[in-house]
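User: Could you go from structure to sequence for me? I need the amino acid at each position, not a summary. Structure tokens:
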């Protein structure tokens, strides 16, 4: 099942309320939206999930006066995303249900039963999904997301390797003839980057480019040949990944690197990228723990060098240049140490496979 994220809901609300994205964020209760979406992910079955979504949004009222209209629009989009159709006629029955939910006389169980009785499922094909995503992105969302990163203040905080991941993700999308860049393409960009902490952590779990591409094709399918010509917009989930990565980097007082982008992909476990990591590594939590362990280790090493230099009373440009020179050397040593660590781990594994105890 495909779930909506916070930015999906806000994009729908912006269309219904006829306002821009900044305005809808100011007018909405984001915490209430997140609580409702978290509840949806705990349910199983389309009707049950849609019932929790409808009842939750009507009761939480995150959108103010037009809340009911937005709630229905969000549910319709959620149902459509999962290749089904919800019949709303007669509308008086819908109004009655919404009145009872708002008054506390009905809940998600009644909403699910109502939706189940009016739900029509459609068979899913890769071409249908590709076309659906294309329409969804180009119908108002494409203008909002397309090339958001070029010239954006957030993008200026991306390191060169992180920018390269974005470029590689776009190339992977074109390679698969997809008309959007999602978290699955960002994951491919991270894997094909071929350097850095994020790539090594993924490789440790056997997450390789061929394996990821095979699962992308299995889950989504290939697009129509030539469909990806021209600019390719980012999905709301991809943009959410960028914003989460930016927040993680700011919390660490750093620029956004590939490792922060990987944290963003891991954070959205319902995205295709997160689903693929779960399939290949079995546990996104374990991948996250290993990634954060390496980040924290590197951070402590950098802080140690910075602290040593801070003890120098001479606050000159020479000291500034010396600091950056030493930090660059430290990063080179850390990179080489990680490569040696990986080689040692492979050697130990090889010895075990030949019934030799590496610790003897």
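Assistant: Here is the amino acid at each position, in order:
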């Amino acid at each position: 099942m495909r779930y909506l994220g916070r930015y999906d809901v806000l994009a729908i609300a912006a269309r219904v309320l006829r306002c821009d994205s900044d305005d809808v964020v100011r007018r909405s209760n984001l915490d209430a939206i997140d609580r409702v979406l978290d509840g949806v992910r705990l349910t199983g079955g389309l009707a049950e999930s849609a019932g929790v979504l409808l009842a939750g949004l009507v009761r939480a009222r995150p959108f103010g006066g037009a809340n009911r209209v937005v709630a229905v629009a969000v549910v319709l989009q959620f149902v459509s995303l999962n290749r089904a159709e919800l019949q709303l006629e007669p509308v008086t029955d819908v109004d009655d249900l919404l009145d009872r939910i708002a008054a506390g006389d009905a809940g998600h169980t009644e909403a699910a039963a109502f939706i189940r009785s009016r739900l029509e499922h459609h068979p899913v094909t890769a071409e249908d999904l590709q076309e659906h995503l294309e329409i969804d992105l180009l119908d108002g969302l494409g203008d909002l997301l397309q090339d958001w990163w070029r010239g954006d203040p957030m993008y200026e905080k991306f390191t060169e390797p992180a920018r390269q991941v974005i470029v590689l993700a776009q190339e992977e999308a074109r390679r698969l003839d997809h008309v959007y860049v999602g978290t699955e393409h960002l994951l491919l960009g991270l894997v094909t980057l071929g350097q850095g902490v994020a790539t090594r952590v993924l490789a440790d779990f056997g997450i390789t480019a061929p394996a990821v591409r095979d699962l992308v094709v299995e889950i989504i399918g290939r697009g129509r040949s030539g469909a990806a010509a021209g600019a390719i917009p980012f999905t709301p989930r991809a943009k959410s990944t960028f914003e989460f990565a930016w927040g993680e980097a700011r919390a660490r007082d750093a620029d956004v690197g590939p490792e922060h982008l990987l944290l963003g992909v891991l954070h959205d476990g319902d995205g295709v990228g997160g689903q693929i990591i779960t399939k290949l590594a079995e546990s996104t939590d374990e991948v996250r723990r290993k990634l954060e362990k390496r980040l924290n280790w590197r951070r402590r090493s950098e802080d140690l060098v910075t602290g040593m230099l801070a003890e120098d009373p001479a606050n000159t440009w020479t000291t500034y240049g010396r600091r950056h020179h030493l930090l660059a050397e430290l990063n080179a040593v850390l990179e080489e140490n990680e490569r040696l660590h990986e080689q040692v781990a492979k050697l130990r594994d090889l010895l075990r496979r030949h019934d030799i105890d590496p610790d003897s």
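One structural detail worth keeping in mind: The beta strands are 84-86, 119-121.
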